[in-house]
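Quick sanity check, 4Fe-4S dicluster domain-containing protein:
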Amino acid sequence: MMIKINISSNVIGEPILAESMIETKTALNISQAHFDSTYGEIIAEVETDDFKSIREALESKGAKVTVLDHPIVRDEEECVECGACISVCPGHVFSFDEEWGIAQDIEKCIQCGTCIKMCPHHALSLEK
């Protein structure tokens, strides 16, 4: 399952991710990570059986863990098929089809939200 780990400023300098992984013997497949001096966000895949233990370990150290189970949704009426989503998506979810329309492969989506921020017509959202 895909998860998002938010690390707030009060623990940003602490090795809470490494400590939690060692403590729970849980492997995380990190697909994206963004850090600065005030905030951290990690998108990772974890085995379903390991989720509860890694979540408890991370949250006990001050992180917030969210399950990413809402795929990206494209409003076809709003989308102008400009391809901005194609150029920014780290998961290669979007591509042009044979008729230069936008094709999606939802299975590749890591729900990072990068395409949502870049879409000039606000045609993308995370399903809720």
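Posting the structure with no commentary besides this: Helices lie at 16-24, 51-60, 84-88, 114-118.
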